[in-house]
Automatic annotation (TrEMBL):
It comes from the Eukaryota. It comes from Plagiogyria glauca. Pfam families: Ycf4. GO terms for biological process: photosynthesis. It is a multi-pass membrane protein. One of its GO terms (cellular component) is chloroplast thylakoid membrane. The gene is ycf4. Keywords: Chloroplast, Membrane, Photosynthesis, Plastid, Thylakoid, Transmembrane, Transmembrane helix. This is Photosystem I assembly protein Ycf4. The keyword Lipid metabolism does not apply. Belongs to the Ycf4 family.
Length: 184
């Protein structure tokens, strides 16, 4: 949902709290828990998972390896849960004609620099660019070309938009500061 008036335009940006990330986190944690329980079952000699006998698994070396993979998988599985909980990468793009600034705000990883805020003078914005690459790994990115700086992405990297949606997404930020669109 974009919020805009005559002088200010705010475009929200989605973060890592997506359905796909949560599904992968669930799959990783469930799989890792299974590995850990099978490793512990081989150690204590009792089946902790009903219907999954662990008599054939000897604790040394298979059970230890299963425990190790289970613990490593739990660490890898909790990472997407933490990023989704904190919604890393979310924020907004702010165009302010009255003050003549363009501001990017994103939430980062926990720590001293969790809030990422970058400000530019609006007259330094040269164009709104589109990078469209089709093929096996399609890539569609909307970015700002700022004088003397690298291109600044305005959309998420994994966001799958159609060409019509990309045109609409590019037209609004280009119309507000009155710059051209490049990359069609």
């Amino acid at each position: 949902m974009t919020c805009h008036s005559k002088w200010i335009r705010v475009d929200p940006v989605k973060g890592s709290r997506t359905f796909a990330n949560l599904c992968w986190a669930c799959i990783l944690v469930c799989g890792a828990t299974g590995f850990l329980l099978v490793g512990i079952s081989s150690c204590i000699g009792k089946d902790l998972i009903p219907g999954l006998p662990s008599e054939q698994i000897v604790f040394i070396p298979q059970g230890i390896v299963m425990c190790f993979y289970g613990i490593a998988g739990l660490f890898l599985g909790f990472y997407p849960w933490c990023t989704a909980f904190r919604n890393v990468g979310s924020g907004y793009n702010l165009f302010d004609k009255r003050e003549g600034i363009f501001s990017i705000f994103r939430w980062g990883f926990p720590g001293r620099n969790r809030r990422i805020c970058i400000r530019f003078v609006l007259r330094d914005v040269e164009a709104v660019g589109l990078e469209i690459r089709e093929g096996l790994y399609p890539r569609r990115i909307l970015y700002l070309k700022v004088r003397g700086r690298q291109n600044i992405p305005l959309t998420r990297i994994g966001e799958d938009l159609t060409l019509g949606e990309m045109e609409e997404e590019a037209a609004e930020p280009a119309r507000f500061p009155r710059v051209s669109i490049e990359g069609f």
